[in-house]
Amino acid sequence: MAKLWGGRFRKSTDKKVDDFNSSIRFDKRMYKQDIKGSIAHATMLGKQGIIPQADADKIVSELENILSDIEAGKVEFLIDAEDIHMNIEKLLTDRIGDAGKRLHTGRSRNDQVALDVRMYLMDETDEILEMLVHTMQVFTDLAKENTDTIMPGYTHLQKAQPITFAHHAMAYYEMFKRDYQRLCDCKERTNVMPLGSGALAGTTYPLDRELVRDMLGFSEITMNSLDGVSDRDFVLELASCLSIIMMHTSRFSEELILWSSNEFSFVEMDDAFSTGSSIMPQKKNPDVAELIRGKAGRVYGNLMGLLTMMKGIPLAYNKDMQEDKEQIFDSIDTVKLCLPVFCDMISTMKINKNNMYEGAKGGFTNATDAADYLVKKGLPFRDAHSVIGNMVFYCIEHNKAIEDLTMEEMQSFSDIIEDDIYDAVSMETCVNDRNVIGGPAKEMTEKAIKKAEAFINECKE
Predict the structure, then answer these.
(1) 22 included as an active-site residue
(2) How far is CA 272 from CA 90, 167, 269, 346, in A?
(3) Smallest Cα–Cα separation from 439: which of 153, 155, 72, 117?
(4) 299: which residues sit within 8 A by CB, 6+ positions away?
(5) For the segment 241-294, what is each residue's pLDDT rounded down to a tens digit?
(6) Which three-class secondary structure state does DSSP give residue 329?
(7) Helix, strand, coil % over all residues of the chain, rounded to 5
(8) d(CA 180, CA 248)
(9) Could you give the CA distance from residue 163 to residue 173 in angstroms, rounded to a whole number?
(10) Is the pTM of this model over 0.90?
């Protein structure tokens, strides 16, 4: 097949080079954005008198037909045509002849692909934003059901202080809220129209870039033609945002993997989101959580690949940049695959509330509250810390919990201890006395949930 750019060549491209050079197998997914951009470009060319209005009308009409044919499965893309841009242009030219050859006037594939990628990523970002809204809702619903579910909080994977499962769930709401905000911010920088940058130095044709911007719904126009065709910061930024999303799903998945083990038994995964063993009949494996955890590394790898690909590229466009698409497309596909199953896995799991409560009672999670009790009685905190540290050591030696000690045992460590210490170190008091903004007390958690639901409703509007 003759290349659309083949005028200065006297020898056909090697078949292996055609296969190597072609990107149609992965960039064909941008057909809708490519056609939409071409329609806007052709419309502008006609209005500016750069090409005959009749040709512009014919181009727009046939591009709409091509879009319908692609979506109806009537079009087979050609590897020899290299990419989605050349495939569509060839289809157009084959159908309407010389008029189709005028479409590329004042345009390069360099600014064309920059346009298509930006449009495609914004469309995909909108879908992921909707998924994140649902994810935030899942965690707020989980929190609403567990404001009284006391569990141990951890640092260094060692029991630290009692919290509620609602408070723990709302920590993940905050993570996914930041993910939502990051994606919105990323989309704002992606929403810049590069068409008109040409190959690297703009064009001598009197293009109306503002008209194209408005037709395509962009908020801004690129202000430097070199940057317009060579910028892939928006791809890197999205890849980073997607990596952080996957990190958050992986962290909670890791906790579910631990909590569903016999040693914890805090949660039980639903049968529909678990798998068995081919040899061990008793097994119920958290494979969904494990696979999400594993796929996080895949998305990280795409980010590192993109950063490495871009780090040594001089201005302006270089063929290396074709490698951006497979990696960012894969990251998008992976996140879109993981988030729905992640949410359903969480929504269907069983919370073993009693096991969580018993877990909070072990490990001296009320030791800090015992120290705070002494501080409120007038003892300096460092002295109180030492007293309770000695008390914990005594409890370990005698296989007791702090609340199981007799008053005589308690007062052997400090004579300012009174009967009210037993209420002070109860799990319920330890949680609900932490009634500061951001704390785990039921009152504060309910306020946080209410605020979260207001944010989610704003996102849905």
Answers:
(1) no
(2) 48, 27, 8, 12
(3) 153
(4) 239, 242, 243, 246, 330, 331, 334, 335
(5) 999 999 999 999 999 999 999 999 999 999 999 999 899 999 999 999 999 999
(6) helix
(7) 65, 5, 30
(8) 12
(9) 16
(10) yes
Task: Note if 41 is an active site residue.
Answer: no
Among the options 68, 219, 277, 398, which is catalytic?
277
Report how far residue 243's alpha carbon sits from residue 297's, in angstroms, rounded to the nearest whole number.
8
Helix/strand/coil (H/E/C) assignment for every residue in 336-366:
HHHHHHHHHHHHHCEECHHHHHHHHHHHHCC
Residue with tokens 């990280």: 300
Peptide bond preceding 316 in cis form (omega within 30 of 0): yes
Pairing, β 267-268 against β 192-193: unpaired
Tokens of 173: 């709401």
Which of 335, 352, 351, 350 is closest to 135 using CA atoms? 335
With a cut of 50, list the residues of the chain below it in pLDDT: 5
Farthest-apart Cα atoms in the chain, separation: 101
Q: How many CB atoms are closer than 10 A to CB 452?
A: 20
Over residues 419-433, the pLDDT tens digits come to 999 999 999 999 999
Q: Which of 366, 424, 422 is nearest to 392 (CA)?
A: 366
